[in-house]
Every structure is written in C-alpha cells, then in structure tokens.
C-alpha cells in the first residue's frame, strides 16, 4: 500500500520509499533526496570553508611579519596541525555512526550520552598526541626541514597545544548537531568565528606587537570560542538530546574506542596517502619546481575537498538516520542520488581545470617554469578531482553504516600495497617524475573507489538495518522489533 506524503513523495506503509517503477517515481526520489542532502551539506560546507579560512587567514597575517615566520607557521599548521586534525576528526567520526543511527531509531536521549563518551575518548587521545607537539622540532628535522625553521615551528607548535584540546570538544558537539540536522547553528558559529579571528589577529600581532606568539594566542582563542559556542548551543537549545552529564557515558567505552580508532585509521590512511606524495616529490631531481607545481595543484584540490567533506557528512547523516529508522530503501536511494550528483560535480571541476590549465597557476606564481609544470599536471589534477568527488561519498556511507574497519583494510591494500609502490616505480624507476608518482597514486585511489562501489552494489540494506538496530540496543537504546521497522528493498 503506497501512501502519498505532504511533500508529494510516495512511501510504503512503514515510511520507507516504495520501489521506483516509473520515470515520475525516479524524478520524485531524486528531488526529495537532493533537497534532503543539500539542506544538510550546504551549512556544513560553509562551516568547513570558514574553519579552513581560519588557518589561511592566520598564515596571511603571519606572512606580513616575515617570510621566515610564514614558513615556520605554515609547516607547523600543515604538518603537525593537519596530522592531529585528521586523527581527531577520525576519532570523532565514530559519533556520526552512533548518533545518526540512534536519532533515526528515535533514541534522541542517547545522543547526549554518546557525545559525552566521545569527549572522554578524544580528551585522552589529545594526551597521547601531545608528545608530537612537544617534540615537534626533532620530528620536523627528521622530515628534512632546516634546523632554524624546525626550531621556530616547534616553538609555535608548543603554543597551540590548547587548540588541540579544543578539537576534543568541537568534533563531538559538531557530530551531535549534524546527526539531528541542526547544521545552521554550525554555519553561523563558523562565520562569526572567522569574522572575529581577523581583528583578533590584527590586534595581537600588530597592535600588541606579539608577532607569531600573538598568532598562536588568537588561534587558540578562536578555536576554543567555536567549541564553547557549540556546547552552549547544545545545552541551551537541544534539550531533547541533552539531558545533563551522565555516568552512562562510561558504559561500553572500549567498544566505542575500537570504533573510534577504526574511524581514525580509515581517515588518516587517506590523509597520509596524499601527504606522502609531497614527501616523495621532494626527493626528485629539480625538486623545487616539482614540489611547487604539485603544491599549487593540491591547493586547488584542497578547496574542492571542503565541498565534498560537507557532502561526506551529509550522506553519513542520511544513511545512519535511515538505517536507524528501519528504511533500507531510503538509505540505498540516498546513496545512489548523492554518488551520481557528486560525480557530475567532479566532472564539472575537471572541465574547469582543463580549460584553465595554462592560466590558474598565475594566482600563485609569476614563474614561467612553475606555470608550465602546473599546466602539464592539470590532467592528473582533473582526474583526481573526479575521483575525490565520489570517494568521500563512499567514506560517508561507511561512517553512516559502521564499516570503518572494512574501509581501513581496503585503504591499506589499495593505497599502500598497490598505489604507493606503483607511484614510486613510475616516478623513480621509470623516470616519469612527479607525473609518475601522482599517476601511480591515482591508480590506487581508483582501485579503492572501484572496490567500494562494488561493496555498495552488493550490500544487503535489510541486513544493514538489522545490524543497526542491534548496535542501538547493545549501546543503550530501546527500539521497535525488527519486524516493525524493517522494510523490503
């Protein structure tokens, strides 16, 4: 029995979609899922751009202090900061699975407990990451940085340790709000934080003349302001999901730690894979041009990544909510619509890059050699953008479904057993330089994307709903029986 909803869509008796049997049904599903996905994704994308902007603005202000200071701070934020950010984001992503599925199952009261559990786990994680900050100078020297830059960057890294701990509060509250699609608040908080960060940098660096110390203080204040603002919003405006501090946060904590580590490993394997190409390129002949041209390409790729990080979070919320609600077909359809749309966006970015391949490097450099090198890499950048348009969607599905461990194993095989060695062989043994390195690593990404698409195609979403309901029961929620919630795909 199909029942029309108020928004014009059709649902089966349990609230799930009916099978798509006509062109009109297909159009309805595409429109509904597009609206639902972008309603979540757009504010998250805006928030991510604002947070990315905080780092960029910090580098810009420090650049007006001096080139040496800029190099040191940029290295600190891009090497140490990126590593800790990626690991903490991965640890916090376990909350996307649990909060999204609990919210879909109607167990909203569990979200606050899960968030507190994540706070505990991430604060302990910060303590384990602190040696990287304390010994940043010898670590950077080991990675080949000049002694003077490594020492200055190490001092700056020590000063931004408070920012590391802000992530332990920031990410869990962010995932708590995303699971309930309360993402407008995140967008406003990110915007206000960026707007206030700019005058704060000017005040501390130039008015108080504190230089990079002032930049570090401003960086800490802004990031903690974001974390505190999110907590205030949760406590003040999310009464259904937040019921105060609870000792239940310590229940099943080891199972939570395992899921968090799997999430962190999955994400970090991807981040380190892309970082390794920069390290390897530094060992090529004419490394200055090679690293410079690759860095320009990666900068453009990084801005595209902000868009797909938002889509990643949105599809994770959609999938986890629908699985928790017992709607296997809705989960499947949301994935199909999002993958196709993301792929088309990736194609658009690739076409823009190929059309502007002889010109876009001018934004970064006046060097004709660098501009020519970037132009030669444009085709690889375009392919990377297409792959990176689909891959984050699959990563979001993995988080929403709780497949982090599976994806981690796939990443190890495709990236580090296949892609990285192939890139090394093409780059150094076949003398193809940065083109060979990047081409080999693209092959690893393509293989990973293909394998995960096969996994998606072969997934039994009814079984995924069953596993979701079992997970919610195990970790503290009470849901309806499987017979009451599960539809048939």
Automatic annotation (TrEMBL):
GO terms for molecular function: antiporter activity; transmembrane transporter activity; xenobiotic transmembrane transporter activity. It is found in: Membrane. Pfam families: MatE. The keyword Membrane applies. GO terms for biological process: xenobiotic detoxification by transmembrane export across the plasma membrane. Keywords: Membrane, Transmembrane, Transmembrane helix. GO terms for cellular component: membrane. Belongs to the multi antimicrobial extrusion (MATE) (TC 2.A.66.1) family. PANTHER family: MULTIDRUG RESISTANCE PROTEIN. The keyword Protein transport does not apply. This is Protein DETOXIFICATION. InterPro entries: MATE_euk (IPR045069), MATE_fam (IPR002528). The chain crosses the membrane at residues 37-54, 74-98, 119-140, 152-173, 185-208, 253-275, 287-315, 335-356, 377-400, 406-428, 435-457. It is a multi-pass membrane protein.
């Amino acid at each position: 029995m199909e029942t029309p909803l108020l928004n014009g869509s059709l649902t089966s008796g349990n609230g799930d979609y009916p099978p798509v049997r006509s062109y009109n049904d297909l159009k309805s599903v595409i429109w509904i899922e597009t609206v639902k996905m972008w309603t979540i994704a757009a504010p998250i994308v805006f928030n991510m751009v604002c947070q990315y902007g905080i780092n960029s603005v910090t580098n810009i202000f420090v650049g007006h202090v001096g080139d040496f200071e800029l190099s040191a701070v940029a290295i600190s934020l891009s090497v140490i900061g990126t590593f800790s950010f990626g690991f903490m984001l991965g640890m916090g992503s376990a909350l996307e699975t649990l909060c999204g599925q609990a919210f879909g199952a109607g167990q909203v009261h569990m979200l606050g407990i899960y968030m507190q559990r994540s706070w505990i786990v991430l604060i302990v994680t910060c303590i384990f990451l602190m040696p990287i900050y304390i010994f940043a100078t010898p670590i950077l020297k080991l990675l080949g940085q000049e002694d003077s830059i490594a020492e200055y960057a190490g001092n700056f890294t020590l000063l931004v340790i408070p920012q590391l701990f802000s992530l332990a509060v920031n990410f869990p509250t962010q995932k708590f709000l995303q699971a309930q699609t309360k993402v407008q608040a995140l967008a406003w908080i990110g915007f206000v934080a960026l707007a206030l960060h700019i005058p704060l940098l000017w005040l501390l660096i130039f008015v108080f003349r504190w230089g990079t110390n002032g930049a570090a203080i401003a960086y800490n204040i802004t990031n903690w302001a974001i974390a505190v603002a999110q907590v205030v919003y949760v406590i003040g405006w999310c009464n259904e999901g937040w019921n105060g501090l609870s000792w239940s946060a310590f229940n099943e904590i080891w199972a939570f730690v395992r899921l968090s580590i799997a999430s962190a490993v999955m994400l970090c394997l991807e981040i380190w894979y892309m970082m390794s190409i920069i390290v390897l390129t530094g060992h090529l002949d004419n490394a200055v041009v090679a690293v410079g041209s690759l860095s320009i390409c990666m900068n453009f790729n990084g801005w595209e990544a902000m868009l797909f990080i938002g889509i990643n979070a949105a599809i994770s919320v959609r999938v986890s909510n629908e699985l928790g609600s017992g709607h296997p077909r809705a989960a499947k359809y949301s994935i199909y619509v999002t993958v196709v749309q993301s792929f088309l966006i990736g194609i658009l970015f690739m076409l823009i890059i190929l059309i502007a391949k002889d010109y876009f490097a001018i934004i970064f450099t006046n060097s004709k050699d660098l501009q020519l090198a970037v132009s030669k890499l444009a085709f690889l950048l375009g392919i990377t953008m297409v792959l990176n348009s689909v891959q984050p969607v699959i990563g979001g599905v993995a988080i929403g479904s709780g497949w982090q461990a599976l994806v981690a194993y796939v990443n190890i095989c495709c990236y580090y057993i296949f892609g990285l060695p192939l890139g090394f062989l093409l780059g150094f043994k076949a003398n193809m330089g940065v083109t060979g390195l990047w081409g080999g690593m693209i092959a690893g990404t393509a293989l990973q994307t293909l394998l995960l698409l096969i996994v998606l195609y072969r997934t039994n979403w009814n079984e995924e709903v069953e596993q979701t309901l079992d997970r919610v029961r195990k970790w503290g929620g009470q849901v309806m029986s499987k017979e009451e919630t599960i539809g048939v795909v």
